[in-house]
Every structure is written in structure tokens, then in C-alpha cells.
Amino acid sequence: NLISNNYRFTGKIQWALEFYKYSMYLMNRLLEINPDYIDYRKTIYDGYNNIGSIYQDIGESDKALIYFKKSLDIIGLLITDNPVNIVYKHQLSESFNLMGQIHRLLGNSQKALEYYEKDLSVMEEIVNNIPDNPDYRCDLSNCYNNIGNIFKILGDEKRAFENFEKELKITEILVYNEPERTDFLSNLSISYTMLG
Q: Global pTM?
């Protein structure tokens, strides 16, 4: 994966894809030999996400969808084996978000909404369990933004507005508590734009 990342960030996309795919082949072989070793599954999860992200970046959303789905399946297995692991739950949220993004790009707004709502459900659970983590709260506000955007695409301005308001409320608190965080300020700007 390190070689793949290097190729990816130096613009050698085809090489990156080949190394990621070969890495996934090797990791799957190792998993067949030792199916109980969790680190193999975590590496496969990351690898499939990386491959999906490359395909998304180069505009091959159908292929990205395949790899994001594989990644979602892997994190689902990890959650089944470790249902209280907050890192896995957050990765599950990220997987739902990626699936929502890809379906939105493919024009499947209703399917995107389903995944964004699953993402929201997971993030609400995480924030309820760890309420003082601002990064998780930021992710929660992004869920509302994504859902609001889908409702806007679907022509449901009222529900879009409701979700943008929820996003704004969370983001205003984040900025108030940590005014130096540029990511929070950027999100606040987006919130005002969506409501404007």
C-alpha cells in the first residue's frame, strides 16, 4: 500500500491501481490462510477504499462503486465481530458516505439518500456515545449537509432546508468552541451558503 500511495500522489495513477490491486490479492490470500487475523481485514478495507477513491477521481464511478461496496462488506464483518469498536463504527459511517457519494454521482439520488441516512444513523450513535469529540460532531453536520443536498436534488426544498438548519446549528457550536479550526469555519460558510 505504501508504494501504491507513492504512485498515487505522484500522479502515476495506473501504477497505483496495479499495486493496490496486487496488494489486495496478497492480503486476501493471507486472509484465506489465517481468517481470524483482523489486521488483514483492516488492510483490505483500506485498500478497497483507496482503489475506489482512485476510480472516483478519474471519473470511473461504476468501478469505484464496486470497490466501495467491497470495503463496506469488509467493515460490516469487522463490526459484526467487534460491535462496540468506535473506530470500526466510524469507518462504517465513512463507507456509507462513500456509497452515497458514488450513487449521487451516478444520478441515483434515492439510493444516495439511503446511504446518507445510514451514515447519519451511525454518526448520531457515535456522537451520543462520545459527545465531546468535535471531529465526530463535524462529521454529523456533514451528514445533514449531504442529506440536504439530496433533498434539494429531489426537489424537496422543505426537507433540504430542515437538514441545512441542523447542519448550521452544529457547525455554529463547533466554530464557537474552536474558532481557530479552519475546517469548521469552511463548513460554516457552506452552511450559510446552503441556507442563503
A: 0.89
